[in-house]
Design brief:
The protein is an alpha+beta fold and 763 residues long.
Length: 763
């Protein structure tokens, strides 16, 4: 991408002009460079083609806005800008695309356009170039306009900005504020494109409801205590606006002090017989109020709703569809977002399908949570003493009477969580006691299940860490390091790995097996001389990465087998303890970790399955500061696969499954295939952020090279085709990756949904 790159900033009138600069920038399209395609890979899932957009020489592009007239004939596409530091900007396009102001990454390395197959870029491509001040005004003015309608909102935002300033300097506070505005604009654009019902959608949904043979009655349980009356009225209005009519509201007023609250509830009950209200004579707090509401439930399924939140019109309809499609379901949950005091949506949480490991680190069910009434009756409803985290405790106990197969996820935003000053949606500081009680609920749940573990509150609000006790005695561990290619001469293979293991040899019974050709084994031997306390065995073998792994695995003695890229070095002492403890847990088959590059950016945080390309490394190229995704990058969780560059498994399981496929998957994907075979056996693949390793040298062979540069290994078409034949359905629908999020990312900036729209199927 050709552009001026002056290091000197303009000053005076020129700088002011740049701040407000508005002008049209013409672009020309050329086929994208193959090297750039690897970085663009995760931005788009569907097959298509990439075009590089090169502007005419002119001022540096910082902020842009898509020109609607520049995209005639484009019914579908994406615009992606890449920064040299790994930062990525993604914008969705269509024939009417205008979109919000977009901030190009610093040191922008290129702007690229993705189009479906056989579609050429239209003529007259153009941006509107925006100055910084103008772009910020475009972002901030709508929010300011809404805020002026609510003095309470202005005060809340002022408090939030003050807190940002107290937590850091002005520059970081400004950056976070700007990033928040951008995320809101991007999400608002996504909502308007993909999460706003059309009249046709509503008609089709109504037809589906009318055709339901036995529509279930869904009882919405709502404890009420002193909400702002207007927020309560909006919550009730969102229920009355449901497309699905077969619901009842069971509300329990917990002796609210505000008489307007009672008036709003009584009027709603008078206007709609589906609204039933219990007025408690004395305050008992949220658990008792919720139980009072549960006592009058008549439906077979119970949906939990707070007294000031909002349900979108299709929420209960999609819940009913899920119940009819899966009548065995005990618990159903959906994606969610937040809604501020001006009615603007933000902060979406696009969740994976049911993940019991992730649930122990955060309440991923939360909203919209729906339970079979019989299950709630069986566990006795809500417990006193855990107010603030009563729903987390409820779900922990319900899961003990259910099973993983009976928990269902609807990958659509079906709940808008009200973010006001007194709500945990606006920040955990509002109700810090809630997280202390969640800690109690989680500790008690583990004790009931007979799991030896300690629980601590995580570094972020709403996050918890479960530390399983390692087995006693500690297992023996065999680490296999396949030497598939030469690394840089100044860094012998295994040097970083052996250095990280040296302090652990006193506590652990371990061995390192280096396997490869003779000339590479000599380099490994040299590295071993520097750390004589680490048991190192050299096995001469030739062949592909799976061949080397299988050859070494047959010679191992440890009960745990660890596959480690010879260019990786462990960061910290906790990784072996985490691996041993997790593999001792029943049901776990493999474990992977957090791999970082020498510059501190993410090499991979697990793998995402995807059609056509088999798998994508999660968050590759992101910095740790850029990671978000509701704390998933700092929370242990299940994934469909982890990279063989760092993969721990039990040796007896590895041998029982026949090791890696060294015939059909000699060049790539043997690690992914092994993980999927584990899952077929009912064993989980866990990703643990405490297992953290850093890349000490470039890996030019093995699973890392196959994932990061498949074109460099000849395209891997045969291996990809074999994986499609074996695992096509799984590759197309990874249960641990939300279909609203780009492949290879845990971030929450959404893309066009890949999921089915049930209302469009035949009635």
């Amino acid at each position: 991408m050709t552009r001026q790159n002056s290091k000197q900033k303009p000053s005076g009138p020129l700088r002011l002009a740049r701040m407000f600069d508005i002008g049209r920038v013409k672009l020309r399209a050329a086929l994208a460079d193959p090297a750039a395609l690897r970085a663009l890979d995760r931005a788009v899932a569907e097959p298509g083609q990439w075009w590089a957009l090169v502007p005419e020489p002119g001022p540096v592009l910082r902020w842009v806005r898509l020109a609607g007239r520049g995209w005639p004939g484009v019914s579908k596409g994406r615009l992606v800008a890449l920064g040299l530091g790994g930062e990525t900007m993604v914008a969705e396009l269509d024939a009417q695309s205008v979109g919000p102001p977009l901030r190009l990454p610093e040191s922008c390395a290129g702007v690229y356009l993705w189009l479906p197959p056989h579609v050429r870029p239209p003529r007259g491509l153009a941006f509107w170039r925006l100055g910084t001040a103008w772009a910020l005004a475009r972002l901030a003015l709508p929010q300011i306009h809404q805020s002026l309608r609510s003095p309470r909102a202005i005060l809340s935002q002022a408090k939030q900005m003050r807190q940002r300033l107290l937590n850091g300097n002005w520059r970081s506070a400004k950056s976070r504020f700007l990033q928040g505005l951008l995320q809101r604009e991007i999400y608002a654009d996504w909502v308007s494109r993909h999460d706003t019902l059309s009249p046709q959608d509503r008609t089709l949904m109504a037809r589906r409801v009318a055709a339901m043979p036995r529509p279930p009655l869904i009882s919405v349980v709502m404890p009420v205590f002193n909400p702002p009356p207007d927020c309560l009225a909006q919550a009730l209005a969102s229920l009355r606006g449901q497309i699905y009519p077969h619901w009842e509201l069971c509300a329990a007023d917990d002796a609210s002090d505000d008489p307007k609250v009672r008036a709003v509830l009584d009027k709603a009950a008078q206007d709609d017989p589906r609204v039933r209200v219990v007025h408690r004579p004395a305050r008992g707090h949220i658990s008792e109020a919720s139980n009072s509401a549960l006592a009058i439930v008549r439906g077979d399924y119970v949906a939990l709703m707070d007294h000031d939140d909002i349900l979108p019109p299709h929420a209960l309809y999609l819940v009913a569809e899920e119940i009819l499609a899966h009548p065995e379901a005990d618990i159903i949950y959906s994606d969610e977002d937040k809604i501020d005091e001006q009615g603007l949506r933000f902060g979406a949480y696009f969740k994976p399908d049911w993940d019991p490991e992730l649930f122990l680190g955060q309440n991923m069910i939360s909203h919209l949570g729906v339970y079979r009434r019989g299950l709630l009756d069986e566990i006795g409803g809500f417990r006193r003493g855990l107010e603030g985290s009563q729903d987390y405790d409820l779900c922990l106990r319900a899961l003990e009477r259910s099973s993983d197969e009976r928990v269902r996820h609807i990958p659509r935003v079906l709940y808008h969580w009200r973010a006001i000053a007194s709500s945990t949606a606006s920040g955990g500081q509002a109700k810090a006691y809630a997280f202390r009680r969640a800690h109690t609920a989680l500790s008690q749940a583990l004790a009931r299940r007979g799991v030896a573990a300690q629980v601590e509150i995580g570094p972020n609000w709403g996050q918890y860490r479960v530390h399983y006790d390692p087995p006693d005695p500690l297992p023996t561990i065999s680490l296999v390091a396949p030497l598939t290619d030469e690394g840089p001469e100044q860094t012998p293979p295994l040097a970083g790995l052996l250095q990280g293991l040296a302090p652990l040899t006193g506590a652990w019974d371990l061995e390192v097996i280096a396997v490869g050709p003779a000339h590479l084994l000599e380099q490994a031997r040299a590295a071993g001389r520097g750390h004589p306390g680490v048991p190192l065995r050299l096995v001469e073998a030739a062949g592909s990465w799976p061949v080397l792994v299988n050859a070494a695995a047959d010679l191992t003695q440890g009960s745990i087998l660890g596959l480690v890229d010879p260019g990786l070095a462990p960061s910290g002492p906790a990784w072996l303890e985490e691996a041993a403890a997790l593999l001792a847990m029943p049901g776990n088959g493999a474990l992977g970790g957090f791999l970082l590059q020498p510059d501190g950016t993410v090499l991979q945080a697990g793998l995402t399955l995807r059609p056509g390309r088999v798998a994508a490394p999660v968050n590759h190229g992101d910095t740790l500061e850029q990671l978000s995704g509701f704390m998933r990058h700092t929370t242990r969780q299940r994934l469909s696969a982890v990279s063989g560059a760092c993969l721990f498994t039990r040796r007896e399981v590895f041998q029982r499954l026949g090791g890696l496929d060294q015939e059909g998957l000699a060049r790539a994907y043997a690690d992914v295939d092994y993980c999927l075979r584990l899952r077929r056996e009912g064993l989980a693949v866990v990703w643990a952020p405490r297992v953290r390793l850093e890349l000490a040298q470039a890996a030019s062979g093995g699973p890392l090279a196959a994932l990061l540069d498949p074109q460099g290994l000849g395209g891997l078409a045969d291996e990809a085709a074999l994986m499609e034949r074996r695992w096509g359905k799984l590759l197309a629908a990874d249960p641990y990756h939300n279909p609203n999020v780009a492949y290879g990312s845990m971030q929450q900036n959404p893309v066009a949904p890949r999921g089915a729209r049930p209302w469009e199927s035949g009635a």
